[in-house]
Amino acid sequence: MIGVGVYCAVCMGAALAGQRNPNPLVEAGSKSFHWPKGKRAAVSLSFDDARTSQVDRGLVLLKKEGVRVTFFVNPEPVRKRLAGWKQAAADGHEIGNHSLTHPCTGNYPAFLQNALENYDLRMMAHELDEANDQIQKLLGVKPTTFAYPCGLKFVGRGLDVRSYVPLVAERFLVGRGYLDESPNNPAVCDLSQAMGTPFDDLDFTQMKKIVEDVVKEGTWVIFIGHEIGERHYQTTDINDLERLCDYLNDPANEIWLGTVQEIGGYIRKQDETNN
Ligand SMILES: [Zn+2]
What we know:
- It is a single chain.
- The protein is α/β, with parallel strands linked by helices.
- It has a single domain, classed as Glycoside hydrolase/deacetylase (TIM Barrel, Alpha-Beta Barrel).
- It is 40% helix and 16% strand.
- The termini are far apart.
């Protein structure tokens, strides 16, 4: 959930700005950045881990809504539902890279045997490149965007910790985080560390509130879900997702709903034009 925790960067920023302008960078940046004509903000829907419910339940709904999303996948679970994932690619959804084996901090018991604390940059480069090769062989598409497993961006421990953001930056258009407290300000964001906002466990009213704030600020939110189905832990509720798609599709709301690649590509182009 957003804003829950001992430290909240968004609340802190608002307090420091004296509520005058919760995000002064948007104001400063808005002079040089423009969304395409008729659009006030951007929204991407993304789903991680190649969970089977994404293709088993999600594809039919997304097709009915005419909505294309970004699936950040690992090769192994793709093999388990290969026909479904081929269908996802054929439907025009973006297939992004979520690493080969999903390394994460060993503090999560499930990742004790595959802990980032025991990785180095060479091992992480292999994770990225091998995943891209296998995804391309399985689905015939080469990912151009990446989602950091667990949103973590380091390898090693203590004095030997290194950021693997540069590895992502040299290989991908966008590297997306997780559990971040803010959407992306297109005028200043670093695409290799794009912020990601979970929408698992939220109802439509909560999702809509996030989108309304994004429209107010002219920013880009990348939503992140895991399972698609009935409301449950790490599950995006399929009925609330349908209502969100209807809302985002309504031209009156002037929202650009695009894949991470599409919107990231537009931001990079604007950035190049301005420099
Ligand atoms: Zn993941």
